[in-house]
Every structure is written in C-alpha cells, then in structure tokens.
Specification:
Blueprint: H1 2-24, H2 36-41, E1 69-72, E2 76-80, E3 88-98, H3 101-109, H4 111-122, H5 132-150, E4 156-166
Length: 167
C-alpha cells in the first residue's frame, strides 16, 4: 500500500500542482481563468505612456511645433573644478526651445531657479570632463534632466548649447 501511495499519488499531486501553477502564471496559451488578458484588451489596465526623452536630451536638430519659440538665457560664467592654482572658467550660452509664447512667459519667471540649477550642475565638472563633442552632450543631457524638473515637461521641447568656452 505504501508503494501505491509513493508511486501513484505523489506523481499525480506533482502533475496537478504543476498544472495549477502553469494556469496561474499564464503559461498555457489561450487559457486565462482570471480574465486579465481580456481586461487588458478592453483598456482596463493600460500601461502609462512612455516618454521618449527621459534621461537624454532630444537631438539638436529635432523638429519642433510650429508655435515653438526660442528663449535665450544670459551667458553663464561657471567656475569649474580644478587642481591648478588658478581658476578655470566655462562660458556657457544656452537657448531653450519652448512650446509657445505663453510658455516663454512662464519660463522667464523661473529664470533664477534655472540659472541656479545650471551653475550647480556644471560646476561639478573638470576641464577634462567637458572636452570635445562628448562634453557638450554631457552638459546638454544633464541640463535637460534638471530643467525638466523645474520647467513643465510639456513646455520644454529642447535645450541648445549655443556656446561653450573653457578658459
């Protein structure tokens, strides 16, 4: 009798348990006892729309809306980190592409916060960090992320580096 329990009942319980697990995890195609797929098809569980540019700025040549305006910020003079005895400065000029003229008015009121964010972010770099094309992209991408925290995400379309000089 013990052999019957061991050789028949245990494998039967194992097969039933594996089948229930497969059903619960949706591993059997076309069989959905909980109705999750049907609810998802009806739109009950829609995933949030993914934003295309979260941690990286759009390309400089990206198309904009017809009403877009360019808001040029005053030049920044930023003291970079250095181990030299004399300071190293970066002269940075930025232009923000905004959705419309109303967005320009909103962003103009945020200019002190924008200037602070740019200076705090850029002053952490050394001269070697910002050399060449990669340095410009590093500044653009970092400022894109920080400016989207300050400016409404719908208002800010792009960030352009107009001039970046290190002396």
């Amino acid at each position: 009798m013990k052999k019957l329990i061991i050789f028949v009942t245990l494998p039967l319980m194992l097969i039933v348990g594996a089948g229930m697990g497969a059903v619960m995890f949706g591993l059997i195609p076309g069989f959905d006892p909980l109705g999750k797929r049907r609810a998802a098809m009806n739109g009950a569980e829609m995933a949030p729309k993914e934003e295309p540019y979260l941690n990286k700025a759009p390309p400089p040549f990206a198309e904009t809306t017809p009403n877009a305006v360019v808001f040029q910020l005053e030049e920044f003079v930023i003291n970079l980190q250095t181990e030299r005895r004399y300071p190293v400065f970066m002269l940075l000029s930025l232009a923000l592409e905004l959705k419309d003229p109303a967005a320009q008015a909103r962003v103009a009121s945020l200019e002190p916060r924008i200037r602070d964010a740019v200076i705090v972010y850029a002053s952490r770099f050394t001269q070697d960090d910002l050399n060449g094309f990669d340095g410009i992209n590093k500044i653009r991408d970092g400022l894109w992320v920080r400016l989207r925290d300050i400016i409404d995400k719908d208002d800010l379309l792009n960030v352009q580096v107009m001039k970046m000089t290190i002396k």
